[in-house]
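Hi C.,

You asked whether I'd gotten around to modeling the 152-residue construct. I have! Everything is below, sequence then structure, no commentary in between.
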Amino acid sequence: MQILQFRGKSLLSRIIQFQTRSAYSHTAPLLDNGTIVEAWHPVGVVASTLADHIHTPGAVVDVFNIVAHYDEAEAERFLMSQVGKRYDYWSVLRFLTRRDAPKNDAWFCSELALVACDRAGVKLLSGNPSHMAPGDVTKSPKLNWAGEIVLS
C-alpha cells in the first residue's frame, strides 16, 4: 500500500490548502492491486483506480511509501469494509471551528487513511486522526516520497 497526497487544482482544493496551510488537499491509500479507497465529498468512501479517478485533470499526486512493518491485508480489509460510508462533513467543519466533531460512522480523507494504517499496525502520526489534515500526513517519519503522478 502507498499513500497518495493530492495537490488539487479545484476551488475546493485550494480552499482546503489555504485553510490547512498545506500544499495538499486530499489523501488516499493506494492498494497494491491499483485500487484507491478514498473518502470523497459528496459521495463518501469510494473505491476506484487512477484510470477512472474522480479528480480534476492536471492535479499533481505525490506518492509515498510506508517504511514500517504493518499488516497490509488488514489495511485492505478495513478500507474495503468502509466503502459506501458517508463523508464526514462534521469533522471537516472542525478544521474551521477547532472544536471536536461528534463521533460518527463517516470519514474524511486523511482520517480514513490514518485509521487504516493504525488498524494495520503502523501509527503514522500521534494524535487523533480526525484532527489531521492531508498535509499533516506527510509529516510522518514512516513515509518516504516515491515520486509524483500528474492526473490526465
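If it helps when you're writing up: The longest helix spans residues 72-82.

Thanks,
B.
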